[in-house]
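name: query_chain
kind: protein
chains: 1
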Amino acid sequence: MADTHRLAPHLAALLTCLAVVAGLLAGPAPANAAEPDAGVRLLVTYAAPVEAEAAAAALATVDAAAATDESSRVQVLTFADEPSARAAAAELRARPDVVAVERDGVLRLAAADDHAAPAVRTAANTSEVGWALRNTGQIIAGTPGTPGVDIGARLAWPHARGRQVVVAVVDTGVDVTHPLLQPRLWRNPDERADGRDTDGNGYVDDVHGWNFTASGPGTQLFRSATADAHGTHVAGIIAAAADPTTGFSGAAPRASVMVLKFMEGGSGLVSDAVRAIQYASANGADVINASFTIEAPAPEALRTALVESGLPVVAAAGNTSTSLEELPTYPAAWRLPNVVSVAAVTHTGQLARFSARSRERVDVAAPGANIVSTAPGGGLAAMSGTSQATAYATGVLALALEHHGDRSADELARALRDSVRPLRGAAETRAGGIVRAPVLLDRLGTPVSACPPLPRLRFRDVPRGSAHHDAVACLVARDVVLGRTSTHYAASAGLSRAQTATLFARLLREGSQPLPVPDDQRFRDVAADDPHRLNIEAMAAAGLLPGRSSTRFDPKATVTRAEFAAVAARTAERLAQAPVRSTVPAFPDTAGHRDESLLRKAATLGVVAGRPDGSFQPNRPVRRDQAASMLVRLVDRTVQQGTLAR
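structure:
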């Protein structure tokens, strides 16, 4: 562990602005900060896409200037004066092709209340740098963390680092001269900085993005530490290059950041956000990071722009410390299919006290407290908020997009919602857990295995090339299974209840939740010298593999597919110390089965799958080689979730 002076060179340039920045990121905008001028803009949502100039020209009574040249269902119209805007609004509302006409509004950075953790402070030591990427139980602010409560980036990086993925940071500006961000800036492939609109997209010299605020000019992506600290911090969390001095890195350190500045300090106009979203969609972004909120009434124009973008959008739940049922903030509360809303958790796995929450409207959690990232001036600083959590969830998605950019926005959003480590502290979210990059990669088809390539087994009845060879080899390497003899595994033999108890007990001993062994022998049908006795007693006492009765275990009985799947689901929940939330429907032949909910959980984990005809065949016996494959899938998933060591 390094002392503070190890970080000093990276923080010196930041120290002069910390007091000002603290008011911007987790608290309300400073009292002397000017409110964005909404002017006389109207946000017009049409039933079908229209050309911007056509939208303005169609007004019969007043003239209007269109804000963009894009064809879209949402158009921003600017008027010379208030009477013209009112007249146009009346005219537009009378038209059948117009869905909504709204006055411009103000979006804000997620503002924490007075009881939230301090928003900005210097990083005290390098143990705080990167706990969100790999949590080994680091002590932060005097409290030890919970190992595995992180996004699993270091397990995912051998498979993906975000190469050729463009992340649109729709936020304040970004310090484009920061040494860890400069190499990660998006480069518009068809634009040259020559004072002309080289690529013909309506923006002159938009090499790395655009400034949509009135502060302009549009090419000025960074104005000051006060105005643009938030976007700088968020961009670093997502895609900063690795810093060998401090160990800091972005979640997707090979992704590119498209800087779309629509906020000045702590707030910005809805119209500018809409234009930024439209720019991202039209100019090659793969995902949008949206760390901003607005309370009701929520603008239909913003909602439509997000859906129309065709991109996955990761949005902050907000720092209101309340449920979104009580105080809905948008876009998180909309529950749009392409939008994933994110709450913040601490390094201990608890929901941060400032974070909004909702079992219906907040999808997932991500690290959001005491997060070290890039700050204006070339340094690093720690901040807290759902903005930071949102950036980590975006980084996780950016890793997956390296290989799975052909998936639809809705499919990617759905996969991200399902790719969590269960956490009791995140129970007040739809997924009930923290996003994990290895789970997402594996779910989308990029395997993240708990076992490296293994040599050929010595068992003659499990030859290389057989469907279960690698699974058996993996479990042999982990000392979870043994053969009947040195050359015979008994692959086709049934798996007994006693053997099942030992398999799962060995697996649990690898995790952080070992099984205590009861002092007394409970089951009369298990011999005192039975090699499985202690495991049987421990598994039954923990409720993971119950006996047939209070005194009878039936150790030699063959385990069925349903029984094995139920034990696997219970084991996963014990490792995570949190319930698994099933996201798959019941199999047709398991409806009404006593373990139906556990079978759905096992299927959600990927431990079991249906037969070719869609059935599960719950009463069919499990073979030893089939059990190995199912158990390895459980090992893979629990390693991906961070509840079991690799």
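note: The first helix runs from residue 8 to 11.
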